[in-house]
Design goal:
By secondary structure, the protein is of the alpha+beta class. The protein has one domain: Nucleotidyltransferase, domain 5 (2-Layer Sandwich). The protein contains 4 helices and 4 strands, in the order αβββααβα. The chain has a 4-stranded mixed sheet with strand order 3-2-1-4. Helix 3 packs parallel to helix 4. The relative contact order is 0.19.
Protein backbone atom coordinates (compact mmCIF):
# COMPACT_ATOMS: atom_id res chain seq x y z
CA UNK A 1 0.00 0.00 0.00
CA UNK A 2 1.47 3.34 -0.98
CA UNK A 3 1.21 6.58 0.97
CA UNK A 4 -1.64 8.08 -1.09
CA UNK A 5 -3.77 4.96 -0.84
CA UNK A 6 -3.25 4.84 2.95
CA UNK A 7 -4.23 8.51 3.23
CA UNK A 8 -7.40 7.93 1.17
CA UNK A 9 -8.40 4.90 3.22
CA UNK A 10 -7.86 6.86 6.44
CA UNK A 11 -10.11 9.64 5.16
CA UNK A 12 -12.82 7.15 4.22
CA UNK A 13 -12.68 5.59 7.70
CA UNK A 14 -13.05 9.05 9.28
CA UNK A 15 -15.90 9.79 6.86
CA UNK A 16 -17.78 6.64 7.92
CA UNK A 17 -17.30 7.57 11.58
CA UNK A 18 -18.88 10.97 10.93
CA UNK A 19 -21.66 9.49 8.76
CA UNK A 20 -22.82 7.27 11.64
CA UNK A 21 -23.74 10.43 13.52
CA UNK A 22 -24.75 12.88 10.76
CA UNK A 23 -27.83 12.35 8.60
CA UNK A 24 -29.82 14.79 6.51
CA UNK A 25 -33.58 15.17 6.37
CA UNK A 26 -35.85 17.08 4.01
CA UNK A 27 -36.04 19.98 6.47
CA UNK A 28 -32.32 19.88 7.38
CA UNK A 29 -30.26 18.28 4.59
CA UNK A 30 -26.64 17.22 4.90
CA UNK A 31 -24.09 19.56 3.30
CA UNK A 32 -21.27 17.30 2.17
CA UNK A 33 -18.08 18.23 0.38
CA UNK A 34 -15.43 16.60 -1.75
CA UNK A 35 -12.16 18.24 -2.61
CA UNK A 36 -9.70 17.14 -5.22
CA UNK A 37 -6.43 18.79 -6.09
CA UNK A 38 -8.02 20.92 -8.78
CA UNK A 39 -11.72 21.30 -7.81
CA UNK A 40 -14.17 21.51 -4.91
CA UNK A 41 -17.63 19.94 -4.96
CA UNK A 42 -20.53 20.15 -2.48
CA UNK A 43 -24.07 18.78 -2.30
CA UNK A 44 -27.15 19.11 -0.14
CA UNK A 45 -28.45 15.59 0.43
CA UNK A 46 -31.73 14.36 1.91
CA UNK A 47 -30.70 10.96 3.32
CA UNK A 48 -34.28 9.88 4.06
CA UNK A 49 -35.21 9.87 0.38
CA UNK A 50 -31.66 9.41 -0.92
CA UNK A 51 -31.89 12.46 -3.14
CA UNK A 52 -29.56 15.34 -3.87
CA UNK A 53 -31.45 18.58 -3.24
CA UNK A 54 -28.83 20.94 -4.68
CA UNK A 55 -25.22 20.80 -5.84
CA UNK A 56 -22.45 23.23 -6.69
CA UNK A 57 -18.82 22.90 -7.66
CA UNK A 58 -15.99 24.78 -9.24
CA UNK A 59 -17.09 23.18 -12.51
CA UNK A 60 -20.46 24.98 -12.38
CA UNK A 61 -20.44 27.29 -15.43
CA UNK A 62 -20.89 30.56 -13.48
CA UNK A 63 -18.12 29.74 -11.02
CA UNK A 64 -15.84 28.32 -13.69
CA UNK A 65 -16.15 31.49 -15.75
CA UNK A 66 -15.56 33.68 -12.69
CA UNK A 67 -12.44 31.81 -11.50
CA UNK A 68 -10.79 30.76 -14.74
CA UNK A 69 -8.18 28.02 -14.31
CA UNK A 70 -7.50 28.65 -10.60
CA UNK A 71 -10.23 26.44 -9.13
CA UNK A 72 -8.46 24.43 -6.40
CA UNK A 73 -7.87 27.21 -3.89
CA UNK A 74 -9.56 28.94 -0.94
CA UNK A 75 -11.11 31.66 -3.13
CA UNK A 76 -12.79 28.98 -5.25
CA UNK A 77 -14.12 27.25 -2.13
CA UNK A 78 -15.64 30.51 -0.93
CA UNK A 79 -17.40 30.94 -4.28
CA UNK A 80 -18.81 27.40 -4.07
CA UNK A 81 -20.00 27.99 -0.48
CA UNK A 82 -21.80 31.17 -1.46
CA UNK A 83 -23.41 29.46 -4.46
CA UNK A 84 -24.67 26.45 -2.48
CA UNK A 85 -26.15 28.79 0.14
CA UNK A 86 -28.03 30.72 -2.55
CA UNK A 87 -29.32 27.49 -4.11
CA UNK A 88 -30.48 26.27 -0.69
CA UNK A 89 -32.31 29.51 0.07
CA UNK A 90 -34.08 29.34 -3.30
CA UNK A 91 -35.41 25.93 -2.24
CA UNK A 92 -36.44 27.25 1.19
CA UNK A 93 -33.65 25.60 3.18
CA UNK A 94 -32.07 27.60 6.00
CA UNK A 95 -30.57 24.93 8.26
CA UNK A 96 -28.15 22.19 7.24
CA UNK A 97 -25.89 19.71 9.00
CA UNK A 98 -22.29 19.91 7.83
CA UNK A 99 -20.47 16.76 6.75
CA UNK A 100 -16.76 17.46 6.29
CA UNK A 101 -16.32 14.00 4.73
CA UNK A 102 -13.27 13.06 6.77
CA UNK A 103 -11.28 16.15 5.79
CA UNK A 104 -9.77 18.43 8.42
CA UNK A 105 -11.81 21.55 9.14
CA UNK A 106 -9.09 23.75 7.72
CA UNK A 107 -8.25 25.61 4.53
CA UNK A 108 -10.67 24.98 1.67
CA UNK A 109 -13.16 23.07 3.84
CA UNK A 110 -13.33 25.88 6.40
CA UNK A 111 -13.53 28.53 3.66
CA UNK A 112 -16.53 26.79 2.06
CA UNK A 113 -18.32 26.44 5.40
CA UNK A 114 -17.65 30.04 6.44
CA UNK A 115 -18.84 31.39 3.08
CA UNK A 116 -22.05 29.33 3.30
CA UNK A 117 -22.68 30.65 6.83
CA UNK A 118 -22.01 34.21 5.73
CA UNK A 119 -24.46 33.79 2.83
CA UNK A 120 -27.24 32.73 5.22
CA UNK A 121 -27.05 29.00 5.98
CA UNK A 122 -27.21 27.86 9.59
CA UNK A 123 -25.15 24.85 10.67
Amino acid sequence: MDKNQARREGRLIRHMRVRRKVAGTAAKPRLTIFRSLSNVYCQLIDDESGATVAAASTLTPEIKQQLGNKRGNVKASEAVGTTIAKLAQEKGIKKVCFDRAGYRYHGRVKALADAARKAGLEF
